[in-house]
Write a structure and sequence with these properties.
- There is one protein chain.
- By secondary structure, the chain is mostly helical.
- The chain has one domain.
- Helices cover 81% and strands 0% of the residues.
- It has 8 helices and no strands.
- It has helices spanning 2-26, 32-44, 50-87, 91-103, 105-112, 118-128, 133-160, 170-195.
- Helix 3 (50-87) packs across helix 6 and helix 3 (50-87) packs across helix 7.
- The relative contact order is 0.13.
Length: 200
């Protein structure tokens, strides 16, 4: 299985990266994190160029998010309301849940990229709850950029230092984690100041 995956990735290159991320976000099972780490390792050995790989991953994840948002926006509410009649969940309860999601949407969408299942559910929830498109897109961009960059660069640096990887000191590991946290905190700080006074 792993061999077929590697052959597919090396045969189709950046298109394969886009496809894996797109389908993974839409909800079709796909090893997104593992794939991005593999891409990073491959890029460190010259199989991929790291910047086009990052761009393909970013575009794939954003395309998946937008597609899921559109599906949720166009057909999500009617389906939920019909199911609600059978599940004892009237429209008022769903409207309250949607309003709660919208209040925390920018943070939830951006951070949700790092949580399997949540990143697939969030764009559908955003569409169903009629989250404003600019808020949705900016949150997606912040989260997708942090998520894809983190995993591909982890793979890239592992690939560059593979023979020394298991000899890393706790200090090196701490510095690496600190850099990822700084990127993540910066993204969330920008989100906070952009949307703290704007109604969703």
């Amino acid at each position: 299985m792993a061999q077929h995956f590697q052959v597919f990735m090396t045969s189709y290159g950046y298109i394969a990266i886009f496809i894996f991320l797109f389908f993974g976000i839409v909800g079709i099972p796909s090893p997104e994190e593992s794939m991005m780490i593999f891409v990073g390792i491959a890029a460190s050995h010259g199989t991929f160029n790291v910047f086009p790989a990052l761009l393909a991953a970013l575009l794939g994840s954003l395309s998946g998010m937008i597609t899921a948002y559109i599906i949720g926006y166009t057909i999500g509410n009617p389906i939920l309301y019909k199911l609600g009649k059978f599940m004892g969940n009237p429209e008022k309860k769903w409207d309250k849940a949607a309003a709660t999601f919208k209040r925390h949407a920018s943070w939830s969408i951006a951070a949700g990229f790092f949580i399997p299942g949540v990143r697939q559910l969030n764009p559908y929830m955003a569409g169903i709850s009629r989250l404003k498109l600019p808020v949705f897109l900016s949150s997606c961009l912040a989260g997708a950029l942090t998520w894809t960059t983190s995993f591909i660069l982890i793979g890239y640096f592992i690939g560059q230092k593979i023979e020394k990887f298991f000899r890393l000191t706790p200090t090196h590991v701490g510095i690496g984690l600190a850099l990822v946290l700084v990127i993540f905190a910066t993204v969330f700080t920008i989100q906070f100041f952009l949307f703290k006074r704007r109604p969703n």
